[in-house]
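Help! Submission page says 'invalid entity' but I think these are all valid:
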Amino acid sequence: MIDKPPITFEVVARDGEARAGIMTTRRGTIETPVFMPVGTAGTVKGTRFEALEDELDVRIILGNTYHLWLRPGVDVIRECGGLHRFIGWQRALLTDSGGFQVWSLGALRKITEEGTQFRSHVDGSLQFLSPEVSMEVQAALGSDIVMAFDECAPGDAPPDISRQSMELTARWAKRSRATFDNLQSQALDAGRTQATEAVSGAPALFGIVQGGVHLDLRRESLLRTREIGFDGYAVGGLSVGEEKSVMWKVVSELMPELPANHPRYLMGVGTPEDLVEAVSHGIDMFDCVLPTRNGRTGQAFTSRGKVNVKNAQWALDTRPLDESCECAVCQRHSRAYLRHLYTAREMLASVLLTHHNLAFFLDTMRRVRQSIRSGDFTKFRQEFTEGLSAYEQEKALSSS
RNA sequence: UGGGUCGUAGCUCAAACGGGCAGAGCACCGCACUGUGAAUCCGGACCGUGAGGGUUCAACUCCCUUCGGCCCAC
């Protein structure tokens, strides 16, 4: 059943390799390059959906197959009308397949050709996730962008391990594609069957390029992924312990070979400087836990570098986190107050820092898009990157 | 007023028996976190033992005096 394409993607401006585009999903339009906040368990931790929509204008967030599958479970979400209705979010959702948890929960799982057996981190029970199960779960969630089920090998994996992992990922990609198509042909997708508002069309399916730090494996993975054919292409298995220079080598070598008319997604990346660097290589989509996790644990990202809110030096500092930030937190609260909240273990500390960090990341991407459109990306990138090291330079100066 | 008992890091407590160079947790200070465990990890500073004296090569530990807390008698 082909109604309309799962997504459309149009590059509207280029500046070097960097590109600005417009992606249309069945749940709204997304300008790229885009940062997608991570909402693993059906919540972008520490935020209200009103803030995401109204204050931050977030167009798309992530959900996680593995985590939602374990809790609350597929039955609950299906009964409650799919993930969008369940959590109260009508904009786009991208769901990670659970493949990353194959890596991040390394000690709790066993991989076979068929799939991955997990020891649930929730209750210790044995659970089995495969390409088929992952596609079924993502269909039940009603995801708008479904990720293929992959295996993410460690960053320092030697060639033979990386090859095995890459080949397994390729076979799983084929099975993901087949199961996904089958489910769609039966319209078994909560995104269509449960939507209350006018949502039509199929979700998109993205493939994932693996291959670790080995360029030949990466190229082969890319070819095999392209061959299967996906709506978008992700690069996975980076920022998992390898040297940063290696990551950029892989990204810069791979980007020219990815289809230009499809969105490119660098999974799990990154810091503000990483985002801008990746954009310069032609990446369109990002997700990362840093703004939310580090916000929760007391670290703010600012235009002048990181601010560790816990530090005693802010105890009497009445300045906002970032004087050039227009977010609600910076408009209203001082560093001294935020430090107090954090030190007193008040939950508002995490909430406010998360909000600011997301605002900074989202605003950075807005400026990235704007600079690409106006042909000033290189200049923007240079100024932005210089700004990020301001605090470190001050520190170096005062200690020398 | 007697008798007993205790006093060690900011806090709670360790440092057998009959002396061997005082250490944990929390707090504090700082670091890390890249397809999320509000998880967690890592590092640092801080005490010379209530005070004074004595015995000893050596005292938180034994002796004397003193101060303070608690308990029991009166």
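Support: the input was valid. A stray whitespace character was the problem, and the output above is from the cleaned input. The longest strand of chain A covers residues 8-15.
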